[in-house]
Specification:
Number of strands: 7
Distance between the termini: 138 Å
Radius of gyration: 35 Å
Number of helices: 7
Order of helices and strands: HHEHEEEEHEEHHH
Largest sheet: 7 strands, antiparallel
Structural class: alpha+beta
Shape: globular
Helix content: 25-40%
């Protein structure tokens, strides 16, 4: 075919307008739902567990508080505590002029668990002691803790928390709170009269103290959290029962419901550091 014949055909093809294309857009149905993946937060898998226990003991709050702040003695009576040392102390408090624990290193041994961690200690003298580990924070207002000037300053705990994060695998948060509430108690007179009828000289009142223990723990993994579900609820009761036994060993019978034994607690020695020593209690018993 000659080139002169192709030229008219080619020009006709190029000049032909394109065929229009129709596109229809349909709206999305209103009942269409998009599926998305839901991620479970760590707080759901590892919930914060709160354990509580309390006892009313026949002793003044001051001597009981001294036993609680005697942290190095914990391994001798507290379950699962295998080691405890005070690593730093507070400034002297303005009322009693005593220095109290500020940080403590403890080791917990329970079955396959064997872990050491550092706790930040906050003492409201003769009323509350809080031990905070991991991300736990004290609930005591800073105005009541002048002997801990950096108690509510995040930068002050940065070094302690960094040390914990490098070795702490069991807990992400652990708060232990001991609270003491003293109240007067008047035992029943031996002659059978009511406490109000008995003479003050023969039926004096004696202080008793309610000891409350609260533990708030969040485990580092869902496995630890699940394994602890059966045993954890018993821990607070075991700890306060062990503390009651410790108080009885160091302080004697106290003044029970019938008032027995209250005489033997008069004049018990208290060391200058605010801790009632077990040896001091035993030597007092021998001399009386």
């Amino acid at each position: 075919m000659k080139a002169t014949t192709l030229l008219p055909r080619l020009s006709k093809t190029l000049l032909t307008p394109p065929v229009p294309i129709s596109i229809t857009i349909y709206p999305r149905p209103s009942n269409l739902t998009l599926k998305s993946r839901t991620f479970v937060s760590s707080s759901t898998l590892n919930p914060l567990q709160t354990l509580t226990a309390s006892r009313i003991l026949p002793y003044p709050s001051s001597v009981l508080y001294n036993l609680i702040t005697d942290i190095p003695s914990y391994p001798t009576f507290l379950p699962f505590c295998t080691s405890a040392t005070i690593s730093s102390t507070s400034q002297a408090d303005p009322t009693h002029h005593k220095r109290w624990p500020r940080t403590a290193d403890l080791r917990i041994g329970w079955g396959a668990y064997n872990e050491s961690f550092r706790s930040r200690i906050y003492c409201l003298p003769y009323h509350t002691l809080e031990a905070c580990a991991g991300s736990a924070q004290t609930s005591i207002p800073s105005s009541q803790l002048p002997h801990y000037p950096d108690s509510h300053t995040p930068e002050a705990d940065k070094d302690t928390q960094q040390q914990q994060s490098s070795r702490q695998q069991l807990f992400t948060s652990l708060l232990t709170r001991w609270t003491l509430s003293e109240f007067p108690f008047k035992p029943l007179p031996s002659d059978g009269r009511s406490p109000q009828e008995g003479a003050a000289e023969t039926n004096p009142s004696h202080p008793r103290t309610e000891v409350s223990l609260v533990i708030e723990a969040q485990f580092a993994s869902a496995v630890y959290s699940a394994l602890s579900q059966a045993a954890a609820p018993k821990v607070a009761g075991m700890m306060i029962e062990a503390f009651e036994k410790r108080a009885r060993e160091v302080l004697g019978k106290g003044h029970g419901v019938e008032g027995a034994g209250h005489e033997e607690n008069k004049g018990r020695p208290v060391s200058s550091g605010g801790v009632v020593g077990e040896e001091g209690a035993r030597s007092w018993n021998k001399s009386h």
